[in-house]
Structures are given as C-alpha cells and as structure tokens.
Write a sequence for this structure.
C-alpha cells in the first residue's frame, strides 16, 4: 500500500504472496448475466456491480474486485439497476470534432460516471478504423484515419484513466465488420496493418498508457486475434512496449497453451481455457509459471498505476446536469455541415413563419447506437413500442444484444426548434407517408427532414442507402419545398441521391442525450458548426474498395435464421453472427494502405463528401505556408483568416505526400489545428509533425523508417481543398 513505490514493484510484492489459485483467479472472470461464453451462460457473481465483466479481487492482499463496464459512449446497463448515465454523442462524432480537448472531456465524463457507479474499469475505447463504411459498429469507432483516430482515442482514454478508472482499447485488431465477426479471417499485409489499423492503437496506447487491450473475435492472417503471436507478443508487447494486459473479447478465447503463449493475459468471460485448464498447464510445466506471473503482473501493475487500489471508486449520484452540458458541448463541436446553398442556414428565428419538422421520431427524440455500447435512456426508449431494426422482420439487431429495435433518447428536436422559433408555426409529420409530409412541407416556409440510419453491434448495414424509404421521403419533401434542410442521424456514411434537390444538410451522427439542443443551436446559428468528416462519404457502394461486404452473401444464403444463429453464441445477430453454422471465410483487405480517402485519391474517385470536409457559417482564407525542419522534425506554418461575419472555428488540416517511390497513397493526414477566430481575425499557426506520422513501416527491417527525399506538405480545410503547398527535403 506504499504509494511511493513503483507500480511494477508493488505488483511483484503482491505476486510473491499469491497462491497459484489466486493467480488463476485473476486471469479469467465472470460476465454480465446472460452473456456467457459459447455453450453456457455465465452467472454473475454476487459482488459484481452489474457490468459486462467481473473478476473477484483478493481481499487478504488488498486487491479489489475488477468491475468492468461497457462504456464506449457512456456507461451501459443502467436500466437494470435504475442508474442514470450520460448518453454521449457517438464516438465517431467525438472524432468529427477534431478537438482533442473534447475527446479528453468525452473520456472524463465516462470515467467520472463509472466511478460514481462503483466501476473501476471501462471496456469502451473502440478504435478499429473504418475500412468498411457499412460496419455496424462504426459509431463506436473514431473514423478512417489512423492519426486522427489514434490521437482522439489517446486523449479519450487519458480522460478515463485520469479519473482512476482502468481504460481499455479495443478491438485488437482488424475487426472492421460485424458480418461473420466470429469466423472472418482478415487477410492483410504487415505494412498496411502497421501503417493503418495498428497505428491507431499504437498512438492511442502511447498517449494514454491505457491499462487494457481487448483482442477481437476475428482471425488475422489465419490466427485468432486472441492467440495471434504477431499481434500480441511481437507488435503490442514488444514493439509498442505495452505494459498492461490483453483481455479477450467476450467469448473470444480459443485455447489455453496457444493463447497463453501468444500473449493473451485474461480470458473473458468464463474459465474454459484460463481456469483449471491453465492451472493444469502451469502445474505440468507446459505453460511456464513465469508466463502466468507475467499475466498477473500486467493486471496488478496497471491497477496500481491507474490508481484503482489507492483511489477506489466512491459511489454517488451521477452529476446529471454536468453530463447534459458536457454531452451538448461535444455534440456542438461535432456536427458537420455538409451543404448550405444560398446560406439557407442558419435560420432566422425572427422572420421564419412556419417550419415543417419531419421524420425520424423528431417529435420525441434522437437515435442512439445499439449493441453492447447502448446507453439506456432515462425513462426508457423515447419511441414506444420501439421501431423494428431496418432489414429485419423482427427488429433484431437494434438494441442491446440485438434484441429490440433502435433506441431513442428523450431529446426532442421538435421541442427545441419550437423553443427557438417561438413566433413560428412549427408542425410535425412522422414521414411515414411521403405525400402527407410533402403536403405539410408545401404549406411551410421551411422543411427540416430528420433521417436516420440505425446501426448496432452484431450486424452491418446492408448498404449505404438510408433504410425504410427515407430517400423517397426526402425527395418528396424537397420537391414540395425549395427550402429543405436534412438532418442526418447516422452511424457512419450514407449515400444521398437527393443531394441536389435540398438546400442544406447536416450530419449530427447519433448526437446524444443533449442532441436536440445542439442541433437547434446550430440550425438557428447560436452555435457555428465546426465539425469535419472523419470518414469519406462515397456516392455509392460501387466506389468502395469492396462493393459488397465480405461474407455477406454467405450469411444471407447459408446462415440459419437469426434465432438459430443467436442460440449458438448468445447475442442475437451478434456473437451468433458467425458461429451459427456459417463456414469460415476470408476478409481480404486488398486495398491495403488505401483506406478511406487514400483509396478515393489513389483511384481517382470523386466522393460525395471527402474526408476532412465540413462547412461553417463563416468563411476562412489560408495563406503563406512554409515548412521548417529541426533534425527530423518537420513543422508547417501558415495563416488562417476568418473572412466572414461570424465568429467560428476552423479545422486547418496538414497532409503530406511522401517521396516518390515509397509506394504510399497520394497523401496522408499528418496534423491539424482547430482555431477559433473572430470575424476579420487572422492567426498564424505552426503545426508540428511527429516523425512517426511521416514514416513508413519497413517490413524487412521490422521498423519505422523516414524515407529520404522530397515531402510535399499541403494545407487547407479538407482533404480535397488544400490551397497551400510547401516542400521539405528529408536527408538520407
Ligand atoms: C463486444 C465487446 C464488449 C463485450 C462485453 C462483446 O460482444 O464485442 O465490445 O465489450 O461484448 O459486453
């Protein structure tokens, strides 16, 4: 209990006192009720706090229980215990703010509320990059760029751990689609994974020192991610120098000896492999006791380092008001204005006489993402009975565990719009019948159509199209009213066949418990939008590296009905989304390094909206870029001026084209700065670029290399609008 000793030393002192049984006890745990490992439900031990994971502590040695909660967008599983948690905007929204302080705040809210509820570990922290824009979990992740995603998750995890809550980054690695997530085998070359997917983890872990890494369900190049020596031992533990522990995704452990020797430190949940079987393997000398001690050391040293031993959680009532404010702040920083013809927005509350609010249950709430990240809304689902999940006859694939339909938070855009435009007639139409919606739109000054794309763990979306005839709804409304504004509530990118017919479009992601306030503040100009896309919006599937999701057809033609599939793994279309009889299949990431905008650049494809894009109610001008080198550190300086009439924030982005012959895509994001500027104000900024961000991974030398030669640095407001360029030469 001596806080002055180093965490590693304290861990060793505990290990010296531990029996073999106590060590085994720490390397596997219980799950939340009902979500056991395949083949049997894991009962929740009595002391569990009700979260997804529980590992009993060792009171005689002062080691507390580990109470783990899913908390990607807020603390989950509140309903069963009547606990309230702040439902934050989706994680991809946090990334869309490009605001590292907002990312820290995001994590701090989660850490704070976990503490208040008696948890000491978060198992949120998703950072699988968006290789597959139809992935049902993109809302839990940080977009398609490894540097943006890595820096964002790093600050988010720091925010969590600064509350003395153990953090965890997941799903390591390449769990980029939900279709067949338990059987898919990601095929990818080392360089591409190091420079893309794994780089996001590398940066995130470096910046946060997160305690945990959750290995994923899928295979990577033939080995399960949770028994993959390359991923766990060689990259994570050796190259990244990761000092924490690797826990398996729920039911993702497949062996005792192989997993233990490949670097898995904790089986979750259950004891099938790291319970008696591991004890026997250690007793017989098959698994060296030193390896078991290493597993235990990693867990204990993290508990000391983060402070869960010295500063245990102190339950109290969650600060609801602070949570609402924080959620609103993050939402307002993350909404992305995609189109604003004729300055349709912001609306003038003083002059607008009538507004038609249409669709997406905007009378009562805003959509949230489903699955294990689902944060329970206060008072239950604002839409009751819940709508069925799109594409499913019975609504499976929507809510927690694929059960029930999409969940709406009680944050009503209709109410917040009415409050802003108090002199106007504001009427609502459900949008179920496009002609009735069009009639209301025709009789109104302005039409605001809310459209949504529900997404959830366990199921990818079938296509980039908005489900449930919503494209036709927008088309009908736009034909009836030339002032049609579309507000998107989506998990990720969608296509917009109606784009030319509407005047304004804004992406609110899943905007969280204060979403309606944030959306109204932006619609009426109380807040100037400043988010930018962390993912490319393609025009259609045919422009994607994989027009069809790997395994999707197999699933459609060969999988048993959802009930049978679910029974195999417990979690509706989720965990069962593979085990229920589907043959294993490869997920060939043939696009390699060309993820997201890098693909569109390299293939000369025009996206609908590019990575890094987003409008403001003011305008910005860029001038005077110069690059400087100190040693191997490049910095780029330039001036940004607010040339419009409103105060606003601009995300100024720096991209680099690497020297010819390096085999890199045309450009990559290497830095940015979010600048708040008053009308007429200009500021010169210097963006320092880490050598790592300009490096390539040399597979032969098994390390990062800064290639000598000419680097072209490009500066501007989106990946497709980079008016400034300057060059630097890297010496050999
Ligand atoms: C999900 C994880 C989650 C775990 C516990 C798994 O099915 O993939 O993200 O943390 O369940 O609920």
């Amino acid at each position: 209990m001596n806080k002055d000793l180093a965490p590693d030393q304290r861990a060793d002192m505990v290990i010296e006192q531990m029996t073999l049984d106590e060590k085994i006890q720490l390397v596997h745990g219980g799950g939340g009720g009902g979500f056991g490992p395949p083949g049997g439900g894991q009962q929740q031990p009595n002391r569990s706090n009700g979260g997804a994971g529980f590992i009993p502590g060792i009171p005689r040695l002062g080691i507390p229980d580990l109470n783990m909660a899913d908390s990607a967008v807020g603390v989950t599983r509140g309903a069963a215990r009547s606990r309230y948690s702040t439902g934050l905007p989706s994680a991809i929204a946090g990334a869309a703010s490009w605001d590292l302080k907002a990312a820290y705040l995001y994590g701090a809210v989660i850490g704070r509320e976990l503490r208040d509820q008696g948890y000491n570990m978060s198992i949120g922290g998703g950072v699988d990059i968006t290789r597959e824009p139809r992935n049902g979990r993109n809302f839990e992740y940080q977009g398609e760029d490894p540097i943006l995603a890595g820096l964002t998750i790093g600050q988010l995890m720091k925010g969590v751990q600064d509350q003395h809550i153990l953090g965890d980054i997941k799903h390591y690695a390449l769990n980029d689609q939900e279709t067949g997530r338990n059987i898919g085998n990601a095929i990818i070359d080392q360089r591409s994974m190091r420079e893309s997917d794994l780089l996001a983890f590398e940066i995130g872990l470096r910046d946060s020192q997160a305690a945990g890494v959750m290995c994923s369900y899928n295979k990577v190049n033939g080995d399960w991610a949770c028994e993959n020596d390359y991923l766990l031992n060689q990259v994570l533990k050796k190259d990244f120098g990761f000092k924490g522990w690797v826990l398996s995704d729920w039911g993702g452990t497949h062996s005792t000896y192989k997993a233990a020797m490949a670097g898995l430190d904790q089986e979750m949940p259950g004891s099938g492999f790291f319970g008696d079987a591991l004890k026997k393997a250690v007793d017989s000398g098959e698994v060296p006791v030193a390896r078991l001690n290493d597993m235990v050391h990693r867990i204990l040293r993290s508990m000391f380092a983060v402070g869960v031993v010295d500063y245990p959680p102190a339950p109290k009532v969650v600060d609801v008001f602070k949570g609402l404010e924080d959620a609103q702040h993050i939402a307002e920083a993350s909404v992305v204005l995609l189109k604003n013809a004729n300055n349709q927005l912001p609306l003038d509350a003083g002059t607008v006489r009538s507004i038609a609010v249409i669709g997406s249950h905007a009378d009562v709430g805003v959509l949230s993402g489903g699955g294990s990240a689902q944060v329970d809304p206060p008072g239950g689902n604002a839409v009751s009975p819940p709508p069925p999940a799109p594409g499913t006859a019975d609504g499976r694939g929507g809510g927690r565990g694929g059960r029930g339909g999409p969940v709406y938070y009680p944050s009503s855009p209709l109410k917040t719009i009415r409050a802003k435009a108090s002199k106007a007639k504001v009427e609502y139409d459900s949008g179920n019948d496009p002609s009735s919606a069009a009639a209301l739109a025709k009789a109104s000054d302005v039409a605001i159509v809310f459209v949504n794309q529900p997404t959830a763990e366990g199921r990818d979306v079938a296509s980039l199209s908005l489900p449930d005839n919503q494209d036709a709804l927008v088309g009908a409304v736009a034909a009836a009213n030339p002032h049609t504004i579309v507000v998107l509530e989506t998990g990720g990118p969608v296509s917009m066949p109606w784009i030319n017919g509407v005047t304004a479009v804004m992406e609110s992601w899943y905007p969280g418990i204060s979403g309606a306030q944030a959306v109204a503040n932006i619609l009426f100009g109380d807040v100037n939008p400043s988010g930018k896309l962390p993912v490319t919006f393609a025009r259609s599937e045919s422009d994607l590296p994989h027009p069809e999701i790997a395994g999707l057809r197999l699933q459609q033609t060969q999988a048993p009905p959802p009930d049978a599939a679910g029974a195999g793994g417990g979690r509706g279309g989720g965990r069962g989304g593979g085990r229920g009889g589907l043959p294993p299949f490869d997920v060939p990431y043939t696009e390699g390094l060309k993820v997201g905008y890098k693909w569109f650049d390299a293939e000369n494809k025009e996206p609908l909206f590019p990575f890094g894009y987003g409008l403001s109610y003011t305008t910005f001008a860029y001038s005077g870029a110069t690059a400087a080198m100190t040693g191997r550190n490049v910095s780029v300086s330039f001036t940004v001026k607010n040339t419009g009439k409103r105060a606003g924030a601009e995300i100024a982005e720096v991209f680099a084209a690497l020297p010819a012959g390096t085999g890199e895509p045309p450009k990559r994001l290497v830095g940015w700065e979010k600048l708040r500027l008053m009308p007429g104000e200009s500021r010169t900024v210097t963006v320092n670029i880490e050598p790592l961000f300009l490096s390539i991974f040399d597979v032969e030398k098994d390390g990062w290399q800064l290639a000598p030669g000419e680097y072209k640095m490009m500066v501007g407001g989106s990946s497709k609008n980079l008016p400034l360029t300057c060059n630097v030469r890297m010496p050999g």
